[in-house]
Amino acid sequence: RCVLKELESLGKALYGAKFIAQSFQVRNCSHRKDPVSGSACLLSMIEEGNPHHFFIATQDQDLANKVKRKAGVPLLFIIQNTMVLDKPSPKSLACVQKLQTNELVPEHQKQSIVQLKEKEGLARQEGEKRRKRKRAGGPNPLSCLKKKKKKTQEGQEPSAEKKKRRKRKRNR
């Protein structure tokens, strides 16, 4: 809402931008009674880890630099007629690295979890580890010869005679 109010106040020069902004879904912000600038409103909406998973699309370098300082906020630019997703900021990469190494759960909480599991009998003891047995497999079916068909009584003999006959070669 603050962005739309700012575009209205800038006049007819930005009517096209206002028309495009109105076509998108309008999100409510906390500045309903006293609107602030569009960039300040966008920054306030992505506070505390971007809980609504917003993307910020801007051409303003000042706003882009402020957004890059926050972790987990994707940044979009429009270059000529193409939308470009900016590479993750160093702050976002550090946050992902922190999540992967499980530094968000303190060490004393990890220990208390292990103690509670042992108390309830859910923890595995070292002697209980089972290894999966490999079962003996058969031979590779592609490397095996096909089974020979058994000859029936007299049904196969004429075909065997035909195989023995040789054709004459013509001399010219």
TrEMBL record:
- Signal sequence, start to end: none
Domain UTP23 sensor motif region, by residue range, is: 130-149
One GO BP on record is:
rRNA processing
Its subcellular locations are:
Nucleus, Nucleolus
Key words of the record: Nucleus, Ribosome biogenesis, rRNA processing
UniProt entry tagged with the keyword Mitochondrion: no
Q: Which Pfam families does the record match to this protein?
A: Fcf1, UTP23_sensor
For this protein, the record's InterPro entries field holds:
Fcf1/UTP23, PIN-like_dom_sf, UTP23_sensor
Name the residue ranges with Basic residues bias: 162-172
- Which family is annotated? Belongs to the UTP23/FCF1 family. UTP23 subfamily.
Q: What is this protein called?
A: UTP23 protein
